[in-house]
Design a protein that fits this description.
225 residues, single chain, alpha+beta, five-stranded mixed β-sheet
Length: 225
């Protein structure tokens, strides 16, 4: 299928109608938060260009599987193609349809909570016209595998840095650690801690907050502060 095809859908027509009805009701009731539980990451994420000399040197230390993984990522980056085509990245028309449903309901202040990406994400959401639609927090998960683990910790850190630097919607990301998000919400704003666990294979582990962010409502949408 053609990724950008306008009829390439992710949600059913029944789900579209459900969202339209529920978001409109939420706005009419003047509810403070519009929280969307989302199976996969919604933000636009183009594969970063891996022409960085670091990755050229890295090849000398990789086995065949890791080399093939790096080759695949390099090709995606060279062609400015999206990462993770099984997420909303592979359904851009469906994502715009969801944003249109939200706008029509008067809901441009979405707080999207995402999973199934094996990484932590702090994302800002925009429609195709550049209008803010809210923010997205993505959790790595406790037992999910690290997708790029074979590349090594240093490579993962550099890949995360390039991901954030090359994608307007990605404020921060981390694929090195397993963990969860602790989200606290009140009437005035929200606070999120990205928590990692040092070990998922035994009961002997510690936790660490590796990143924190505050969210507030401003200008009809949600912003990071």
């Amino acid at each position: 299928p053609v990724i950008g095809a306008p009829d390439r859908s992710l949600l059913s027509s029944e789900m579209d109608q459900f969202l339209a009805d529920e978001l409109a009701e939420s706005v009419r009731a003047n509810r403070r938060w519009r929280i969307i539980g989302n199976q996969s990451v919604m933000a636009r994420r183009i594969a970063p260009n891996l022409s960085d000399p670091f990755f050229a040197t890295l090849r000398n230390d990789l086995d065949d599987d890791a080399t093939n993984m790096l080759d695949r990522l390099t090709k995606l980056g060279n062609l400015d193609l999206p990462l993770d085509l099984d997420s909303w990245n592979g359904y851009p028309a469906a994502r715009e349809s969801f944003y249109r449903i939200s706008r029509d309901a008067g809901a441009r202040d979405l707080l999207v909570l995402a999973g199934d990406s094996h990484s932590h994400w702090q994302n800002a959401l925009y429609d195709a016209a550049g209008e803010s639609m809210g923010v997205e927090l993505g959790a790595a998960g406790i037992t999910s595998p690290r997708s790029l683990l074979d590349l090594g910790q240093d490579a993962l850190r550099r890949f995360d840095e390039l991901n954030a630097a090359n994608n307007t919607e990605v404020a921060w990301t981390d694929g090195r650690y397993r963990g969860f998000i602790r989200l606290e919400i009140d009437h005035d704003g929200a606070h999120a801690d990205f928590v990692t666990v040092t070990n998922i294979e035994s009961r002997n582990y510690t936790t660490q907050i590796v990143h924190s962010v505050n969210i507030e409502s401003r200008g009809g949408t949600l912003r990071y502060v």
